[in-house]
Amino acid sequence: MRPRQRIALLIIACVAASDCRDAPEPFVPPGPEAPAEPVWQLTFSPGDDRTPTWSADGARVIYSAAGFEDSAATRGLLLSIPFEGGPAETALPDVQTDTGPPFWFTTPSTTASGERLAFAHVIRLFDEFLCLEPLVTDCGQPSDTVFPQPRLETVSIKARRLDETGPFSADPRFDIEFEGRIFDGTVRPDGLPGVWRIDYYPFHQVHVEEATLIFRPSWSPDGTRIAFSDGLRILIWNVDGTAPTPVAGTSDGVSPAWSPDGAHIAFTRLERLGSEMSFCRIFVDSPNGPLLNCAEERTMYTMGRRVITVVRPDGSESTELGEGEEPAWAPDGKTIFYRRGDQLWKRSIEGGDPAPIPGTVGGREPAVSPAGDHIAFARPDAQGTYFIWIARLEP
After folding, report:
1. For an engineered disulfide with 267, which of 167, 227, 253, 279 has Cβ 3.0 to 4.6 Å away?
2. How far apart are CA 53 and CA 107, in angstroms?
3. pLDDT per residue over 74-99, tens digit each?
4. pTM (2 decimals)?
5. Paired residues of 355 in beta bridges
6. Beta partners for residue 298, in sequence order
7. Is residue 150 within 8 Å of residue 200, measured between CB atoms?
């Protein structure tokens, strides 16, 4: 039991006891107060807790949680929890119900005013295997090769007022149809059936191999626009109006974060070092010998560094800050927190050396509190299950 919880129980006991009846002043419960320890685990869900963000007043952390028994078909609920610890609540109680259809909500983002919440609704994923598991291949690969496949198909970026009680159908939304997997539906001159064209882009690689949620939305400070990624670039969406427009100079940009002053967007650039093309005929075993299952035209990209890059919303003044990913801004608009290797770091956009954040080994998806005194992040345990943690930041 934490010290604050023990104090609360002692106060309750004191009020009930006769020797406390003459207290001169009524007791006033204390406001939100962080635990004394510099780093603490905030959530304890049965499944993964990911992608934290803060409420506008800094009192609560909003995050995506999975694994609840009564929501077994749901891969992500949006929950809200006091940052000092306590019971979690549903962030969108009017539309997140256990009796509704399965859903996967993730990457929440609040406006500076706290009136609206943006988030991603993962609608469809491609099947893990394009063809039946191959027993024999004809593309210069070992016969037991299982080819990695793009998984992201359709994700809807949504914006909703937190006091809204109506259905999702009335909320602004934009659906991302991810590139990378197309069936051409033709019959080739050599008699092969229609061919799948596969582009295994860097953003597919980090999503499939590292579960990176590359599409996360980020609000402009005035709460009218959202920056997000379709995997191949950063786009800006005028929430109540026009279609999204790409930000120039953000090729292979993912995980954007809009600065508090609106002057910059930070993002992760996934470097491409080259590509290799192949044509594969994939067979399965049959009583009459190998039987053609499907065919692929495949482009595999070699990925290099992940680079933190800062750009103006109009695409000008692009600056690389060095290796890292999943950037998050401090309230001063000059400091960026990010993941590099197996730890969280920070650095100034005005220069200087990066510095690691103590107690954040294994952390990812950082989010800095509005006051700049705490950072929320996701971290896996020894079994690989993610939980939300909080670390106190030094002035």
Report:
1. 253
2. 8
3. 678 899 999 999 999 999 887 776 55
4. 0.85
5. 346
6. 198, 278
7. yes
**Contact residues for 254 (Cβ-Cβ < 8 A; gap 6+):** 203, 206, 212, 214, 215, 229, 231, 267, 268, 270
- Quote the tokens at residue 294: 């499907």
CB-based contacts of 156, cutoff 8 Å, min separation 6:
120, 121, 123, 173, 174, 175, 176
Q: Give the distance from CA 275 to its chain's centroid.
A: 27
User: Is the CB of residue 315 less than 8 Å from the CB of residue 265?
Assistant: no
C-alpha span between 355 and 118 (Å, rounded): 30
Q: Is 211 left (phi over 0), alpha (psi -120 to 50) or beta?
A: left
The SS3 of residue 180 is: coil
Contact 298, 279 (CB under 8 A): yes
Structure tokens at 256: 């954007």
pLDDT digits (tens, 9 = 90+) for 31-81: 445 677 899 999 998 889 999 999 999 999 999 998 654 444 567 889 999
